[in-house]
Design goal:
The protein is mainly α. It has helices at about 5-10, 15-25, 35-55, 60-65, 70-85. The longest helix is centred in the middle third of the chain and has 20 residues, at about 35-55.
């Protein structure tokens, strides 16, 4: 039926296809041994998603003003994502 896992991935959605191209072909995120920069990118993505859920229930302006650890983690993660992306 399908010869490659990429063929299956591309069928899911245009977003999935774009992600596959970006993360594998451009950054090499899906390789067995990704470069250190990619590992940093993956960790930053996790940090942003993790802290975003916390910041949805806590006033962002307060977290930023008090420079709370969750704000620092979110901000640093976003910096990495923007630099890499």
């Amino acid at each position: 039926m399908f010869n490659h896992s990429e063929d299956i991935m591309i069928m899911f959605s245009p977003f999935t296809a774009a992600s596959l191209i970006l993360f594998e072909r451009r950054l090499g995120c899906l390789s067995d041994n990704p470069p250190d920069e990619v590992k940093k990118f993956i960790q930053a993505s996790h940090d942003v998603f993790d802290t975003t859920t916390k910041l949805t229930v806590f006033p962002v302006k307060v977290a930023e003003k008090l420079n709370l650890p969750m704000w620092k983690k979110f901000s640093q993660g976003m910096d990495v994502l923007i630099e890499t992306g």
